[in-house]
Write a structure and sequence with these properties.
Length: 215
């Protein structure tokens, strides 16, 4: 586990408290929120206070770093175990990937926007998140070279269930994906055999769209 040596620990603890009040129970997830220095993940200068508010924020290229509560919610749903191999669609700032890495997962994270991919890759290297592998590409294709995955997390709104990604899950694996055009329902998908999966509907969220191709 990475040592929590970064500044502004007090603000992270308060952020974790707010997220707990909002309904997140998993202590390991709350600990990860207290650990990952979110103020580095904005790429540009940002007020530290802003970084530790429970809200989404622009990171350039028309994209956002997700709201911390949403990051915690998806992370809790994934039930990460140490050593899990996780596929993330939508690296964005890299913050969600860093939270997953703090829980002991190895993450393959795909971003379609090359500028964001390069920025996140540089930041994650500087912060020594060696267990995160940023990939430039179209998340709809997944990362078949590294499949199968224990877990898949989609952090952009998919218009429908991205079935190609289910193919890249191991049997017994989980996918967490917000699905819908205007406003999304978070779905928890469990792969129960090579050809079958179950779908559970969770809370309502709002994500930037999952787009086709690279940019
Ligand atoms: N997980 C991010 C949140 C990112 S917002 C974080 O923690 O900051 C969603 C991201 O998904 C954006 O960066 C967007 O460019 C990216 N995206 C959208 N469609 C995609 C696709 N098909 N493949 C990969 N990335 C995609």
């Amino acid at each position: 586990m990475r040592e929590d040596t970064y500044r502004h620990k007090g603000m992270r603890v308060r952020l974790a408290e707010r997220i707990e009040e909002a309904g997140i129970k998993d202590e390991r997830v709350l600990h990860a929120i207290m650990t990952v220095p979110r103020h580095f993940f904005f790429f540009d200068e940002v007020f530290v206070k802003t970084a530790y508010q429970n809200r989404a924020f622009p990171i350039g290229e028309g994209q956002t770093i997700s709201q911390p509560y949403t990051v915690a919610y998806q992370t809790e749903m994934l039930q990460i175990e140490v050593g899990d191999k996780v596929l993330e669609i939508g690296t964005g700032s890299g913050y969600q990937a860093a939270v997953l890495a703090t829980l002991g997962a190895k993450i393959y994270s795909i971003e379609r926007n090359q500028k964001l991919h390069l920025k996140a890759k540089k930041l994650l290297q500087e912060l020594h998140y060696d267990e995160i592998i940023p990939i430039f590409g179209d998340g709809y294709e997944g990362a078949p070279a590294f499949a199968p995955f224990d877990k898949v997390i989609v952090t952009a709104a998919a218009p429908e269930i991205p079935t190609k990604l289910i193919e890249q899950l191991r049997v017994g694996g989980l996918m967490v994906v917000p699905v819908g055009e205007k406003g999304q329902i978070m779905l928890k998908i469990t792969k129960i055999s090579d050809t079958e999966y179950t779908v559970e509907e969770k809370g309502k969220f709002r994500f930037v769209p999952m787009l086709k191709g690279t940019k």
